[in-house]
């Protein structure tokens, strides 16, 4: 496994595919990519599988899964009082502002995977290290994002690499695109897979491809950095201790 990004994109190996684990449509509320634009851009940059991870919504992902000629994994980026979590392979939307243990339970109950996005970026509301370590201890963290194309400071992505290596967590890569131009900025080349368990095995063999690409013009960095309810009302982050208190 090569955790360190290559750019420009090399030729994809035979039997391997291009996978973006984290991107958004306009349904997220802070993105501007229409479903039609996403379909066109995905084809242009030759992605094979995309995880649509809108904030608190799965309807666009479900529509794209039916209509796109490529494979779509239905996901959702979910705000909790302790930071954002992505669920992959979902069949039902998970409400925001639930505590971390409840969100994890709902993801797992659907046969989904727990994915930690941009965990070490101080400007955004990822899960912080004490919560990540609690998830690892409980055997509930499946994937940690080791490269996010919206992170300008390489050290933040490298901290995620170190965490993945230390705790033997499968790595993920996301463009985190909120506009059409951002799609294709980052992806992982992996052996083809079938289903959640197979995906984890493929990620461990993958190659990171990506470059930094700034946020879309309409994207609010402050909104991402400060946890808020869907109506925009900020709420306080829990401490790691309170999140895991029974």
Summarize this structure briefly.
With 246 residues, the protein is an alpha/beta fold. It has 8 helices and 10 strands. β6, α4 and β7 form a beta-alpha-beta unit.
What does this molecule look like?
By secondary structure, the protein is α/β, with parallel strands linked by helices. The chain has one domain: TIM Barrel, CATH 3.20.20. It is 28% helix and 24% strand. It has eight helices and ten strands. The protein has helices spanning 35-44, 59-67, 100-109, 129-137, 154-167, 196-203, 221-225, 240-243; strands spanning 2-6, 16-23, 49-52, 71-80, 83-88, 113-116, 143-148, 170-174, 186-191, 207-210. The longest helix has 14 residues, at 154-167. The chain starts with a strand and ends with a helix. Mean pLDDT is 88; it is low at 219-246.
Class derived from helix and strand content: alpha/beta
Backbone CA Rg: 16 Å
CATH architecture: Alpha-Beta Barrel
Counting DSSP H or I runs of 4 or more residues, the number of helices is 8
List the SSEs and their pairings:
Elements: E1 2-6, E2 16-23, H1 35-44, E3 49-52, H2 59-67, E4 71-80, E5 83-88, H3 100-109, E6 113-116, H4 129-137, E7 143-148, H5 154-167, E8 170-174, E9 186-191, H6 196-203, E10 207-210, H7 221-225, H8 240-243
Parallel strand pairs: 1-10, 2-3, 3-4, 6-7, 7-8
Antiparallel strand pairs: 2-9, 4-5, 5-6, 9-10
Key features?
disordered C terminus; 246 residues; 10-stranded mixed β-sheet; TIM Barrel; alpha/beta
């Amino acid at each position: 496994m090569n955790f360190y990004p290559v750019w420009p994109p090399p030729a994809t190996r035979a039997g391997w595919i291009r996978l973006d684990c984290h991107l958004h449509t306009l349904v997220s509320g802070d993105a501007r990519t229409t479903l039609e634009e996403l379909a066109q851009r995905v084809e242009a940059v030759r992605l094979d599988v995309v995880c649509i991870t809108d904030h608190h919504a799965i309807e666009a992902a479900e529509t794209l899964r039916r209509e796109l000629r490529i494979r779509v994994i239905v996901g959702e980026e979910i705000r909790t009082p302790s930071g954002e979590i992505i669920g992959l392979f979902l069949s039902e939307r998970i409400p925001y502002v639930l505590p971390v243990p409840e969100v994890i339970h709902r993801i797992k109950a659907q046969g989904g995977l727990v994915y930690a996005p941009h965990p070490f970026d101080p400007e955004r509301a990822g899960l912080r290290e004490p919560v990540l370590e609690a998830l690892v201890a409980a055997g509930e963290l499946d994937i940690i994002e080791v490269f996010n194309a919206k992170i300008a400071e390489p050290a933040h992505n490298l901290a995620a690499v170190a965490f993945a290596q230390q705790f033997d967590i499968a790595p993920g890569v996301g463009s985190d695109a909120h506009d059409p131009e951002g799609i294709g900025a980052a992806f992982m080349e992996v052996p083809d897979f079938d289903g959640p368990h197979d995906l984890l095995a493929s990620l461990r063999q993958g190659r990171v491809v990506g470059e930094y690409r700034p946020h879309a013009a309409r994207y609010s960095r402050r909104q991402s950095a400060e946890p808020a309810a869907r109506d925009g009302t900020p709420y306080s982050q829990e401490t790691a201790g309170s999140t895991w208190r029974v």
